Amino acid sequence: LKYRLIFISVFVSSVALGIAYLHFSTYKYTAELRVTAVYSSQQLPSGIGGIASLAGVSLPGDKQVTPIALYSEALRSRDIADAVVADKRLMQHIFARNWDAEANEWRQNAGPFDAVVNGAKRLLGVPVQAWHAPDSADVQRHLQKNMAIIESQKTNVTTIAVNDPDPEMAKRLLSVLNSAADNY
User: Which among 13, 67, 126, 150 could disulfide-bond with 121, CB atoms 3.0 to 4.6 Å apart, if both were Cys?
Assistant: First the structure.
């Protein structure tokens, strides 16, 4: 009887915690974009490797820098982050915690533990950075956490995936990133 009571209480507690987690967690949606390089007649690659790349196949040992590789690297660059910074609606969404819609300005959103963390940093000699409005470096950090670039080893198709709680904003972010990287 004693073990049954412990088992039932652990089971009920686990179910309650699971329900609470599902109730308070933020769902994230993934938007994906698949891209590949398109060659013009002047840019056609030559040789067997070139024919294979036109067919979407990457040969082993082919160390040539492809346009799709340049595109993938551009997505991680500061210039592309600058394009996201230029989209005010995206910035207000990505950094909603720091956006004050009523005052129409950025603000520092200090959490309850920020003073403790900053005090510990000072005590340990770790520099404490002053707060600033979100910028390109912050966008790059956000993309590093929420964007995946998956390059196929067999084809020249690259998949860019972005996670966001709002599927429409995920699509918008992908569109801005794609336009900026393509222009880059």
Answer: 126
Distance CA 91, CA 82 (A): 11
Residue pointed to by tokens 């200090």: 110
Residue 51 has a pLDDT of 47
Query: How many Cα neighbours within 13 Å face the side chain of 160?
Result: 23
Residues 52, 45: Cα–Cα separation, whole Å: 9
Instruction: Please tell me the total number of residues recorded for the chain in this structure.
Output: 184
CA atoms within 13 A on the CB side of 5: 2
pTM over 0.70: no
* Per-residue pLDDT band at 54 (split at 50, 70, 90): very low
How far apart are alpha carbons 1 and 8 in whole angstroms?
11
Give the tokens for residue 58. 């990457």
175 CB-contact burial (10 Å; exposed 0-12 / middle 13-18 / buried 19+): middle
